[in-house]
Amino acid sequence: MSAEAVTIIALLNCLVREVSGPAGLVTPDGADRVTIRLEKSDRTLSAGLLRPMGNVSRETMQPRFSGQVESGEKPLSWREVLELVDAELTAITGATAEHLTGQIAISNGLIAEALRRPVPEPSPHPYLDLEQSLLAGHRYHPAPKARSGSVGEIRRYAPELGARFQLHHLAVRSELVREIGAEPDHDQAPSGYRLLPLHPWQYAILSRGRELPAALGDGRAIDLGPSGPMMRPTSSVRTVAADDTGFVKLSLSVLITNCLRINPWHEVQAAVTLAGLLESLRRELAVRFPGTVLLRETRGMTADLGPGTADQLGVIHREGLGALAPGVLAVPSAALAEPVPHPIVQRLLSRLTSDRSLLLDWWRRYLRHLLPPVLHAFARHGVVFEAHLQNVVVGLDPQGLPVQLVLRDLEGVKLVREQRPDDLAAMPEPVRAHVGTPRGRGWDRVGYCLLANHVGGLVSALADRDPGAEPALWAAVHDQLAEAEPFAELEAVLAGEPVPAKTNLLTRWRSAADRDSGYVPLFLPLTADSRT
């Protein structure tokens, strides 16, 4: 699949999910096309499908686009599709989004360059190979690989292009450093200083400002330069590792998808505080749902070198994948949904989709590891895990069967205010404001991340390879949800109510942050009627 097709598919996915679909303006046109009406601008698109949609209702329709789209008889490029989307959304919102063209161009260019690269030779660390193989990214985001910054820096630090680098280290006066969590194993800074790692891209960005050069000039910080092992960025760009024994989540003043990827101090505090607060839940999940692993954020730090620098220097240390059993292969769940999968994943998917009974058995096992712990944590404990495809790692045994499941990124975990008032009251106000969420907003996150993004994304990717299996794949989702301990929001979904789906196109249109994203209703084909 070409970068042009990947980019067009992402735009059409967003348009259908957020604008034309909810308005009932998407209709099948034979077995291999759909018509998408742009009502406000009075235009119509005809989009080719990767596979027939089957007998699904309009409410649950999730087209799988091929990347070919026409207006009238004219094939459209992604830029021409965006022009039509721009006209429609300008008519709806009253504002254009000129910034989006540049972001999509960067995303498209990076995907194209990554697709041109030969498949890298396997390394001793297949998990990191898989992290760096995620070329298409978020399928329902208009610019999934967009990054701010110079083209040279974007390329130099792109995981998709196989980036490797040492961390840049500063020695910072001890009284200027804030720390939380476990003590470091060693700190080779000069006496009276503490060692602070930076992403080399962040070091370059801060060096172009005023605060870091001033701190280096007056001795509040000492530039120690790059050192340590060669690190590889994961798909998040700012989280890095030398192997799978430990990860470092670094601040990066770069806009990636919807957010500037810095680690404000209250978010560093939240991640490490939650690691301690959720320790009993971590143990309960491992016993109640064998194979569940919750990665802990063990230590955090930052330094205050002037206005704004504490947010731009935050560091979170995360434990590695040592809890996986010997012989288990760690696979980022997002790798299973890639249109151009890594050879490891390609071999697995080819084997699964050559035998539908094997595929369905594999999928049921996967769901048994994924759904129960996340739903239990929300319903019983008021803990909101953002279990989208990029936040979950599945452990496969030597036969390729799911046997373990890893939940990561505690910084994004929320606590339901109505269920955890005492825990939230004990936190500093900025941490409490970041971690606490009303139950409705908490369900938005669970419903979207777990069901719309993760489950919906994987069902679609598997059905791309075996279209006839789609009804049975959704039936397995229904059956696993029906076995879970009931709670109001889950019962509503099983009865046919929609789940929330995040509006990434409209969020980027407004240049808004993730926390300000809206949601649209997304109907999943969970009832028997919706699958026939």
TrEMBL record:
Pfam families: FhuF (PF06276), IucA_IucC (PF04183). It comes from Kineosporia succinea. PANTHER family: L-2,3-DIAMINOPROPANOATE--CITRATE LIGASE. This is Siderophore synthetase component. Residues 127-337 form the Aerobactin siderophore biosynthesis IucA/IucC N-terminal domain. Residues 361-515 form the Aerobactin siderophore biosynthesis IucA/IucC-like C-terminal domain. Belongs to the IucA/IucC family. InterPro entries: Aerobactin_biosyn_IucA/IucC_N (IPR007310), IucA/IucC-like_C (IPR022770), LucA/IucC-like (IPR037455). Pathway: Siderophore biosynthesis.
